[in-house]
């Protein structure tokens, strides 16, 4: 990455363990696209008075030449996202899929849909 990874915590105290997991996942993203210019990750927890625990929201902004990929994982109804690590895993899995798709398009491996002629 040309710009160092940025990690932001909102509504929760910074955690070295969570930050280490994010750094590990971000490093793996570079296997799919070595031209990643920057990656910003925000981990948020909304503190509402739920009957369950607080849910985590993870947003990842990835900048590559020619495209910005934004992943926003916010599942108000997904109790699994009461665990920050699960929310991070899901967000990075989505980021991996989007980067793979983008690389396939760049290589011309994805056929474009033909527009029917009248």
The share of residues in helices is: 25-40%
Q: Superfamily at the CATH H level?
A: Ribosome hibernation promotion factor-like
Please identify the structural class as seen in this structure: alpha+beta
CATH architecture: 2-Layer Sandwich
Order of SSEs, N→C? Answer: EHEEEH
Biggest sheet statistics: 4 strands, mixed
User: End-to-end distance, in Å?
Assistant: 47 Å
Taking pLDDT < 50 over at least 5 consecutive residues as the criterion, the unreliable ranges are none
Q: And the CATH topology? A: Double Stranded RNA Binding Domain
- Sheet-strand content, in percent, reads 15-25%
Number of strands: 4
Coarse morphology: globular
Q: What would you report as the Rg, rounded to the nearest angstrom? A: 17 Å
Assembly type of the shown chains? single chain
Strand order of the largest sheet: 1-2-3-4
**Mean of residue pLDDT?**
83
Summarize the entry for a quick read:
This protein has one domain: Double Stranded RNA Binding Domain (2-Layer Sandwich). Helices cover 32% and strands 25% of the residues. It contains 2 helices and 4 strands, in the order βαβββα.
Give an overview of the whole structure:
The protein has 118 residues and is an alpha+beta fold. It has one domain: Double Stranded RNA Binding Domain. Helices cover 32% and strands 25% of the residues. The protein is built from two helices and four strands; from the N terminus they run E-H-E-E-E-H. A four-stranded mixed beta sheet has the order 1-2-3-4, with helices on one face. Helix 1 runs parallel beside helix 2. The protein is globular and about 55 Å long. The N and C termini lie far apart (47 Å). 20% of the residues are buried. The model has no long low-confidence stretch (mean pLDDT 83).
């Amino acid at each position: 990455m040309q710009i160092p990874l940025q990690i932001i915590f909102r509504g929760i105290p910074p955690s070295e363990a969570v930050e280490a997991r994010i750094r590990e996942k971000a490093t793996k993203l570079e296997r799919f696209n070595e031209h990643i210019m920057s990656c910003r990750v925000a981990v948020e927890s909304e503190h509402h008075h739920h009957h369950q625990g607080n849910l985590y929201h993870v947003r990842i902004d990835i900048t590559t030449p020619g495209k910005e990929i934004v992943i926003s994982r916010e599942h108000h109804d997904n109790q699994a996202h009461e665990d920050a690590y699960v929310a991070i895993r899901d967000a990075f899995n989505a980021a991996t899929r989007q980067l793979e798709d983008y690389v396939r398009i760049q290589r011309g491996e994805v056929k474009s849909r033909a527009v029917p002629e009248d």
